Amino acid sequence: MLYDWIKALHVIAVIAWMAGMLYLPRLMVYHCAAPVGSVQSETFKVMERRLLKAIINPAMAVTWLAGLWLVYEGGWYRAGWFHAKFALVIAMSAVHGMMSGWVRQFAEDRNVRSARFYRIANEVPTVLMIGIVILVVVKPF
Length: 141
Fold this sequence. Notes:
Layout: H1 2-31, H2 39-74, H3 80-107, H4 115-121, H5 124-138
Helix pairs in contact: 1-2, 1-3, 1-4, 2-3, 3-5
């Protein structure tokens, strides 16, 4: 019974993490158009920081903690599909880290990337998420 509750917590945390990971680069697309020092730019800074600190970071932490518990309790660390999924989750965490750096650069008015860059970056979590979900649901190997 505890396994099912932890799995539910894991799924909820993943949804929150992905929602933030999909929204944050979208904010950055619009932030690029805001003049440095403008009210609009300062508002985006607050939105990006709060999204990262209040939603994305805690959701990632809960995702990892609950996920590692599920892996151990379920014995999934022996499964081939899990190794592929784990690699994709590591990649998602790396993307999270890069986004954290981008938030810091915007906060310091040091962004050098274009809106087009953030539009493309916005697709990376989606592709990783699709791979992760397929591996977990289908367990192809």
